[in-house]
Design brief:
The protein has two domains: about 5-50, Orthogonal Bundle (Helicase, Ruva Protein, domain 3); about 55-150, 2-Layer Sandwich (Tetrahydropterin Synthase, Chain A). It contains seven helices and five strands, in the order H-H-H-E-E-H-H-H-E-E-H-E. The strands form two sheets. A three-stranded antiparallel sheet has the order 1-2-5. The protein has a two-stranded antiparallel ribbon with strand order 3-4. It is α+β, with helices and mostly antiparallel strands. It is elongated. Strand 3 (about 115) and strand 4 (about 120-125) form a beta hairpin.
C-alpha cells in the first residue's frame, strides 16, 4: 500500500503532480528510486509532446561571475508569462547562466548535453525537462552569450 506521506515526499522532491507520483509509486511497488526513474521518463514523454508549441514568453537572465571578469546573458522561453514568473523557471534560467559562465559551451546543443555543474547526475537537458514536467509547458533555451574580459 502506498502511503500519502510517500506521495507527498516524492512530489516535493520532483514537483510532479500528485497523481503522477502516486501512479509512479504504484508502478514501482513503493520503491522511491524506481518511481523517480518512472517520473523522469514521464517528463521526457511530456516534453516530446510539447515540441510544436509556441514559446513567446520567458525571460533574460544575466549572471556576472565573482571578480566581474565573466558575464552571461541567456534567453529562456516558455509558453506563458505565468510560467516565466515562477520560481522554478527563474531558477532554471539562473542555473543555465551559471553553467554557461562556468563551462563556456559554444551553442545551445552543446549546453544541453553538458553535465550540470551542481549535480553530476544530471545534464542541462534534464533540468529543462524537470521544469517542463512541473509547469506543464514547453520551455527551452533560446540563445545565450558569454562575455569574458579580454576575450
Amino acid at each position: 500500500m502506498i502511503k500519502a506521506k510517500d506521495i507527498a515526499n516524492l512530489r516535493n522532491e520532483t514537483g510532479a503532480g500528485v497523481m503522477d507520483c502516486k501512479k509512479a509509486l504504484i508502478k514501482a511497488n513503493g520503491n522511491k528510486e524506481r518511481a523517480l526513474k518512472i517520473l523522469q521518463a514521464l517528463g521526457k514523454d511530456k516534453a516530446k509532446k510539447r515540441t510544436d508549441r509556441m514559446t513567446e514568453q520567458g525571460l533574460i537572465e544575466c549572471y556576472v561571475h565573482k571578480g566581474s571578469r565573466i558575464g552571461v546573458m541567456v534567453e529562456v522561453v516558455c509558453e506563458t508569462d505565468f510560467v516565466a514568473r515562477t520560481d522554478d523557471f527563474k531558477k532554471l534560467a539562473h542555473n543555465i547562466a551559471m553553467q554557461v559562465a562556468s563551462m563556456g559551451p559554444k551553442n545551445v546543443k552543446e549546453l544541453l548535453g553538458q553535465i550540470f555543474i551542481f549535480d553530476d547526475k544530471k545534464k542541462i537537458s534534464d533540468l529543462v525537462e524537470e521544469v517542463i514536467t512541473k509547469t506543464g509547458e514547453k520551455c527551452e533555451i533560446k540563445r545565450f552569450e558569454r562575455f569574458e574580459l579580454g576575450g
